[in-house]
Amino acid sequence: MPLVFLSTATVDTSNLSMGDHGSLWQAFAGMAVVFGLLMLFLKLLARLNKTRGSVDSSIVVVWHLGPKREIQVLRLGDNVHYIYRYDGSMVVLKEEPLAEFQANHKKENEEGDRRAPWKKLLGNKASFLGAQTTA
């Protein structure tokens, strides 16, 4: 196989100049500066947004029900919202005060502490590890 293509693959740096408008390297350096300033500006905006958030909001738990289907429990201020999400749509299932939500889940957590550690780890999803009988 002849190696003729290697002679055409070399870069002639004299062709990289852009005439009287500067060189290609200056254009790359300018783009790097612009992207650096953009990243700095986005970080500054994220920091300002974080300090401005007056409403306490967070995702408490997400229960996955299948592909593109889930139930999200969201805390917005002093309320908890149960939201069913599917294929880009959302339906609010239930709303309750935060104190009521914490009281209900405190009872569930106390009951869950009495279970065996491996059951807590697997979340009762491994039914084959339960009581086994032999005939």
Features:
4-stranded antiparallel β-sheet, disordered C terminus, 135 residues, 4 strands, 26% strand, alpha+beta
Structure, described:
With 135 residues, the protein is of the alpha+beta class. Helix content is 41%, strand content 26%. Strand 2 (69-76) and strand 3 form a beta hairpin. It is elongated, with a radius of gyration of 30 Å. The protein starts with a helix and ends in a 13-residue tail after the last helix.
Protein topology:
Elements (H helix, E strand, L loop, with lengths): L4 H5 L14 H29 L4 E10 L2 E8 L2 E8 L2 E9 H16 L3 H6 L13
Antiparallel strand pairs: 1-2, 2-3, 3-4
Distance between the termini: 75 Å
Number of helices, counting only DSSP H or I runs of 4 residues or more: 4
Q: Roughly how much helix do the residues carry, as a percent range?
A: 40-55%
Q: How would the global form be characterised?
A: elongated
Strand content: 25-35%
Q: What's the count of strands?
A: 4
> Secondary-structure element order, as H and E?
HHEEEEHH
